[in-house]
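User: As part of a screening pipeline, I want to sanity-check one entry by hand. Below is the sequence and the SMILES for zinc ion. Please return the complex as structure tokens so I can compare it with the automated output.
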Amino acid sequence: MTTDKQSKDSTTGLQVACDTAVSGCVFRMRTEADDKERLLEMTREHVRERHGKDVSLDEIEARHVETVEVDLEEADQ
Ligand SMILES: [Zn+2]
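Assistant: Here is the complex for your manual check:
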């Protein structure tokens, strides 16, 4: 037997989307709020490799990171 009571499980997460700044790029990442450092660093790495630009972690956080509701089931991949 299964229960369907878990569909309301959600938590606050972070999402970064490169395409807000550079058209044509669909880089997008989602992570738990705790993982912000890693999210910022991976995004910086992406921007450097793909776009040849050096951006600071502060800049990424200020311009590209948004807070989102994350479905726990969806996050479990
Ligand atoms: Zn990009």
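Points to compare against the pipeline: The chain has three helices and three strands. The chain has a mean pLDDT of 83.
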